[in-house]
Every structure is written in C-alpha cells, then in structure tokens.
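Quick one before lunch.
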Amino acid sequence: MSQDEQTTMVREDRYDAQRIETKWFERWQQDPSLYAAEPNSTKPKYYVLEMLPYPSGALHMGHVRNYAIGDALARFMWMNGYNVLHPMGWDSFGLPAENAAIANNTPPREWTLRNIANMRAQMKRLGFGYDWSREVTTCLPEYYRWNQWFFLKLYEKGLAYRKKSRVNWCPKCCTVLANEQVVNGRCWRHEDTLVEQRELEQWFLRITQYAEELLRDLDRLPDWPEKVRTMQRNWIGRSEGTLVDFKLDGATDSPDSKITVFTTRIDTIYGATSVQLAPQHPLVARLTRNNDPLRAQVEQLIAEQRKAKEVGDIGAIEKHGVNTHHFALNPYNGERVPIWVANYILMDYGTGAIMSVPAHDERDYEFARKYSLPIRIVIVPRTVDPEETSVEPTLPFTTMEGTLVNSGPFTGLDCEEAIKKMSEHAEKKGFGKATTTYRLKDWGISRQRYWGTPIPMLYCEKDGIVPVPEKDLPVILPDNVDITLTGGSPLGRVPEFVNATCPKCGGPARRETDTMDTFVDSSWYFYRYTDPHNDQAPFDSKTVGYWFPIDQYIGGVEHAILHLIYSRFWTKFMRDMGLVKNDEPVERLFTQGMIIKGGAKMSKSLGNIVSPDEMIARYGADSTRMYTLFATSPDRELDWQDEGVEGIQRFLGKVYRFVEGNACPQDQDWHKAVPAHLTGSARRLQRKFHQTIKRVSDDFQGRWHFNTCISAVMELVNDATRRALGSVPTQNPVTGDPARGDEIPLALLADVQRNIVLLLAPFAPHIAHELWEMLGEEGSLLRAPWPTYDPALAKEDEIEIPVQINGKLRGLIVVPVDSAKEVIQDGALANEKVKAAITGKQIVKLIVVPGKLVNIVVR
Ligand SMILES: [Zn+2]
Ligand SMILES: [Zn+2]
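Model of the zinc ion complex:
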C-alpha cells in the first residue's frame, strides 16, 4: 500500500460492521475472478461443495450455517495453497414454484428467477466466496437439455422404461411421489395429506440394477457419517431368501393359480400352517368375489393398514386377519394349508405374501395364538448327542442354531445346510428358487406437473414409443401455460407442445406431457459445475476427472436417502457409459445440525423464524455467520440466541480495537524478526499464539469443532490485549505496578496481530480483510499463506497459577510446568502481594491444585 493510500484510509476506533462489510462487498464485486478455480493449475485440487438450495425467495438460517461451514473450509484450503473449486447453483424446478406461482399469479419462471436474484444477493452480502462464473440453474434449457440427453441414454441402455403401476399420489400436489417422498403415509411436502394409491403409466429408472453395488460401496465411504450409511443400507434393504410357489387347491395350472411367497427361512416350511396375503394382493379380490361379508372384512383390514401407515409404525399394528376358507398346497409335502388375509402384510414388500410358521417366527406365533392356528415344531435346538431328541424348544424358537425335525427328507439337517438344500430342491422341481430381494424399488420419475424437465419422448400410433432424436434437444418447456387447472399434466393442455411429428415415419405424434422428478436435476449437477458452459456435452470428462470426486460435500441429513442415493446411482451409470472414472461422487460427507429456536424447529406458524437479513442489519454478516459456527459444534442442533450473535459482535469489536490501537506498520521495529529467546510476558504470549495456531489448524483437518477453535482465538485475543495493555500484574509484584505494553517487542506484537487476522479470515472475512489492510499487509488475504506454528514455541514450559486468599484473587505466580506441590506452595508464599496479604494472620488451610490454583484460608 502506498503512503498516500495509507493516509486516506479511514481508521475509526469503533468496529463498524456495516461500513467495513459494505466496503469489502463493493471491492469483491469488482473482481469476479476472485474466487475462481485456476485452469491448468499445478496446485493440488480441492472441491468443496454445499448442497444447492431450492430458490424459495430468501435464505434461512439453516442455509447460512451450511454455507458458513463450506466457506470457512474453502478459505482455509485457499490459504493452504490449494486450487479450490467452490461453486453455487439453484435447484430451481419443482412444485413449490408452481404452487407459489398459482398463489401469487406470477409465472413460475419469473417467480423463480426473481428469487434466485434475491438469494444470490444475500449470499454475496454474507461474503461467501463462490465462483459465480460457474453458477448452475437447473430450470434453464442449457442445463435441463442434459437431463433429457441422459434420459435418452438411460432409455437406450434399458435403464429407463415405462410401465403401468400403482403409484403414490398426493392429492394436494396433484402428482405422483417417489417412495422416498412418502413419509409415514403422508406427502413429504404436505404433512397433513395422506398419500393415495393410483394406477398410472409411468416412467421409471432402473436404479435396482445397481442395488448391490450401491450397498457394497457404502463400505468404501469411511468418511461419510455412519448414520447416513446405515440409513442407505436400510433403504436398500437387501435380504437373501427363497421364493416358493404354493398352488391354489383345486385350481388349474395357470400363472395366477399360485401364491408366490418370499421367505428367509425355507428350512421351516414343514412348519407352515397357513399362507397369508396382503389385503391388497391381487388374488384377494378373486377369492372374495362372491363373498360380500369376507370382502367387507378385507376392506376393514385395508383401512387398519392405512391407519397404521399414517401413524407411522406399521410394525406396531395390532395384528388382525381373516380366513378366506380357501386352501393352498405346500409344494414340499402337498399339505393343504388355509389362506388368510392379514393387515400386517404389505403389498410393496417382498411378494405381498408369506408362509406363516408360528413355531419359528415371533409375528406368526403371536398371530397363531390369537386365531388358534396350529403350531408345529420343525426345528429343535442343536444337541451334542444326536440320540437325544427330547429337547423341547421354548416357542417361538427363531434362531438358526438348530436341527430340522418333522421335515421329510430334510430332517436332521442343520438350518443353514437345509436352507441351501431346500432352495436347490425347489429350483430343481420348478416351484421356487433362492433369491435376493431389495427393499429399494425402481425410481418413478414421472410427474404430472408443469415446472420440470419435459421427458423427451413421443408416442406415434404407428411406431409406438419413439425417443426424441438427440439433435432435437432440448425439448423446451413452453411458457404461458395455464397451471391453475387440476387433473392431468398441464402440458397436455398445450396443443403446440403436444402435437409433434414422428421422427420415424413423419406422421403425427403426441409428446409425453409428464415432467421429470426434480431429483433428476440434483443427481448430477455437481459435475456440471466443472464445465458449466459446455454446449456439446453435459461436461468434459477430462475436466471432471481432475475435480472428482468431491473432496467435501456439506448438507442436511434430510438428504441421506433421496438425493444421496440417486446421485450415487447416477454416477455409477455415467461411469458405465464411460463419462466418468470415479465410482462414487463424494469422498467426504458432512451433515450439519438443524437450527432451532426456543427448542422448536423454526417455522412460520410458530413465529420463531430468525431472518438472516435482520441479523446482518443488526450485527453484520461476519457476526451472523461466525455465530452459526461458534454456538455449538456444526454437527449438532443449534438453539438460536440473539445474545450469542451480539457476543460475537463484541468479540470482533475487541479484535478490531486491539489491532487498530496497536498496529503501527510505519514503525520500522514492526517489521523486525521476533527476537529468538523471549522471556516473561512476551514468551507467554508467543507460546499462546503458537498453541492457538496449532489448535485451529488441527481442528480444520480433524473434528471441525469450530466452536472450540473460535474460543481459542478469543482467548488469544484476550491474552494479547491484556499483555499489550500491560494489565498483567506479574511483572512487578513488588511495586504492584502494571507492566507496560513495551515489555512486548513490537515485532512480536506484529506477529501476533497478523496471525490473529489470518486465523479469523475463514470465519469473518470482512473484518479480517479490513484489519489485514490496516496492518499494512500487501496481497490478498484470501491467498495469504495459512499461519504455521513452531512446536517448540507452542510447548508449555512455565505456567501462571492464581493465588487466592479467602476466596479472593491476590496474585499470580509463575512456575515451571509440572512443578511439584511444594514448589508451587513455596512460590505462593514468597509472592510479595501474598506476603502482604497474610502478614499477621494465621493460615488455617492451604490447598494446592497443581497446574490450577493455590487457595489459602487465613484468620
Ligand atoms: Zn403433496
Ligand atoms: Zn411414427
């Protein structure tokens, strides 16, 4: 900085967040390449990413917390010499835009783009260091054309297909929901709305083809939260078992005359005393056709099941069932077993039918006792003596540690072996086979809504389903569509859109009017950031090869199964296409905790929403974002306290005054090297600041407990301020005069100040930049090297111990670290101030807590 600039620089002695933040906001605006990743860099790369927001109109505090974590990390990595990619974008298709558009009578595009502008401005005001040249907006054709392109590729590979199916339908959204979007039987967006079932022709993505790999590779993600991996494991829900066909008694041989059950315990099948169907099982309608009372009972079971789903715990349902008085045949021994319908059997799990083995299954046992069904033991505890057969198990006996009895040719086998042999037998005889089932279902992506990516498919009377040729992409989502009418896809009411020409025969064709689930958009958006303006391909593979996998992804745990499974699937599909080389998109995942207020989730209805704009206006952006990091560790729930933000503002004010009041970069001593061997107060300050650097650096690379590292910086600031102002009385115990700041060499003070600013830079960038300039430092703080510490200087060699007399602090003694009790005691009694305070009195008690405190009680 030139001399001229220095004299004109405003140096106010008060910390004025608004002035400083406005100044730096404007300066940063002028340099759009400030946060840009470097092309052809030789530096190591670091891709840090926060989940992109839905542009609802304004940031909420949860966003601020999420981005404050990511931004602190990005700045830390910049300062550590990495080539950092830190982009931001908008997950901008989806229902809320459509609903808001209806409510506000504004077209979704206009509403969305306006919200994006607002939120982008808020992010800039908060000082987040994003490379805006890479901004991705999923509702724009330059992005969603690649959704369509991927869809065509999926279709080519047989991974996108159309089928009629029972789907989840939210009557409020007027659209289909994925299984992942149904929470406790209700819409994920409408907690008060029960999801209905409808039969519709739908497009599906064959995610189940990757089920095994999605499950297996969870073990290769050690830096993901265990909680998230467990949720994904459960969602994929792999189970090994056997499919077995029970023929209907008296029926002819046709595919619909048998009940296929799935069981994990085929070894118990000789103990099956009934077959049980889900109330929604297709066969139930047939069995109840001429039996009105029975049908009414089944309806009752359906109602009970729905009710249990609403409450959320189908496992806890009170088990009811009805006997159809029809029979099925056990294929192993030809035994007739009754067919029941039960309310706890779910159609969307397994095959919707089970064999009931009361002796060896908890649920079946409970059910059989209730309805007095026979209970037959076919497994007994394994015994050492094979002659001893009288061991009666306690029922239900469900472990695998057993031997088969009453099981025809399989009697005498161990459970494990029996499962293998009996599955093989079923396969040989053609009535069953060993199989692996997954809870994970194919991903239904059709949505009967307007604001989404049009599915690039055509229907020709002659040629059937015809994909839109690649060269005709994008299929543009038309504007000016009446979205207020309900029933059917809004696009179906736009003839210019619907009516098309078949690319195969040139005849008339009808366009698909459903749009894609918005989770398609977010499944691959982070690849686009690496090459956002490519109009020949979704991205350049080589560029993706450089940046991927994402080194650190940060977002809410609510995305543990939807977004984070879909995007893993998408990556594996792209890898199989040869587009990317990585098997997984994200190396390290961090899920931050929620922000609540007054013990409750922030919501409009509770009136406890804290607006970031208001906090910025009151305390400044630095205090607001720093508070979200300081209040608790970032993985935990944060209960918002305005006083906490105020506390941070006070702290930043203290830092400001400390630097402003002590910085004298014009003084030549300021620029000298710190003397090699410091003693006394100077040495203690030096030690503390090396320790603080170590602590903050370690935490960034380890636990991310930013709250504790910010506390460490606070302590350092307090300590430095005290010493610089000479408020530490140890230096002259005889006269009691406070030591002066000049005890601290100016070069050390400069070093401490410079390092405090560097340590604050990731958390409070505006004030850090301001102070950096005030210290006369040249060059961008953003890329200033992160401070290093000297382990020898950080080592504790002597410590201060306070001495209390009758509970009052009377002095501080300095002793070597690890001093014995006697040494500390002698030191305390030799201290001039202590001596003065106890003269003429009797010591009744003297307690020494080594390393901590001396407590003297006198009378
Ligand atoms: Zn809904
Ligand atoms: Zn045709």
